Structures are given as C-alpha cells and as structure tokens.
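Pilot study result, target chain (191 residues):
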Amino acid sequence: EGDEYSSITKLTWRIFEQWTFLRVVEAFREAGVNLREWTDVLRQNIHSRFLIDFDRGLMFEGTLGHDLRVRFRYEPWILSHNSAALAHETLCRGRSGEVAWCPDIVIECLRRKGDEWTAVYAIVLDCKYTPRVTGQHWSGISKYLEIRSTITRRQVVKQLWLVCPGHEGHVQSEDPAIDFSSIGPTCDENE
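Predicted structure:
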C-alpha cells in the first residue's frame, strides 16, 4: 500500500529559489520581453517527473533588439575561464581556480559581436530563505561580482541582489544613502 510510492520532499529554501526564478522571468515577460512560453520550457524540464523541480542551468532567453538579448539562468555553473571557453559558456570566474561557482539566478545581457553573443552586463540574485539579511550573507556572495565575460574577460556582474521573504515590494540597498520606493531608487538615473 504505502510501499509503492516513495516520499518526495523539497526543502523550503529550494522552493523559494525556484519561486523567485519564476517571478523574475514573469516580471520581465510582463515588461514586454519576448520569451518562450512557460509550457515549452517546463514541459522539457519536468519530463517523466511528478513534481516540478528545475534542472540546474534552466534558461529563458529573449530579445531586446536586433543585437541585444537577455538571458535568465537558474543555477548556472560559472566555470574557470579555460573550462568556460571549452564549454562555449558566456560567463566565467574571475579568480583562478577550477571549482565552479553556482549562483541561484543570473540575468545576463548579451550583445552580438559578429557571429558570437558576448556577455556585457549581468545581475546575480541569490536567494536566502531567512527573515533577516546579515553581513555574513553579503560576504558569502560577494565573489559573484568577479564574474567575467568569457570572450572579453571584462567584469560583467554590476548588480548583486539578495532576495529573501519579507514585506512585499520592500527593497533595501546595502548603501545606506540609497532608498527604494514604488517609483525606484533615490539615486540619479545614471548612477
């Protein structure tokens, strides 16, 4: 009776990461970015499974113009430069070393250069299922600011976000001089 089925559980922090990925992709879709439909990607991802569980590297890609793309990646492997180049990855680690990094979510902006798409800007979102963000959380993810374009070797991660459950719509900057409201940050547009 109960022996025919195995119990499958998923940790709350993993559900939170996947929920955040879905929300980020959907927000960009609502803002007008042309992305593949959910059903196509999820159908490929959950083939022969009874619950949704994203594969590492799940990706959505959309166009922002003729020579500009945006790519959303769930738990991508960020490899050393040599390994990333061999794997035709657009992002690589800035530090030497062979151990791959795996941020929760990466939003990548790519520009066409000839026949290649080159990463020119990236945002890393790291999800923490905690009621309060601490300095330890920030220090644990600061290495992601060293992520570089595999082709140009330039640093491309310009924004690092910690996402945690809390007040709806509340955004808090690590910089105490900047505050966020429903109309955006209190800093100048070009900052």
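One observation from the pilot: The mean pLDDT is 81. A full batch analysis is planned for the follow-on phase.
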